[in-house]
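FAQ: What does the model actually see?

It sees only this:
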Amino acid sequence: MEDPVFAFPTRRHAGSDLKTADLKGAMRKARIEEAERSSAVAELRGAELARLELLKDELAPVFSQLPDDVDMFDFGLVGTEKPRLFVDMVAFVEMGRDRRTFRFIQDTRGGRLVLAESERVEPLVEAVTAYLGRRLVERERAQAGEIAVPTPQPAHAARGASPAGDRRYVVGDLVFAFVLGAIVGANLLLLAAWWKSRGGFAWLGMPGLG
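And it is asked to produce this:
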């Protein structure tokens, strides 16, 4: 009978059957992916700028009609990461998430207000033109208010009464106050005389105070 033969497992090198991770290759792949993403973003941004440039060209004749002394508007295209066509400091046009829809937005104290939204240029031109008209009318009203009311109006102007009538009303108040004061003073004198004739505090049973 032969002696049994035991096969002991041999120890292999840990890296003999495993492929060594390539860090440089991973970095190279990441750079390629980042470049592709940047290229896609640049293409989308270029498309947004092209759409806003088209709207700017359509609005240029409208802004050319503004009076020379009006400096309240700041018309210009800003090509930042999110391109915007500014109308003034608080109103601008930007593209929606679909990269095709124009959105005319105004910043207010209560938040952003969408004034117009459309994929076509014409509705945006009409909305911006209407906005310019409203702002110009507000400016005219403000200037008219400063010229017509340089100082606070007197109280009689708010009541619709004439200055003369207002003066008569004030004089009447003074006469009434004088007469009332005279009557009250006379009554006090009579009361004091009566009190004295009754002996003052002695009349109340307190002779020490009389």
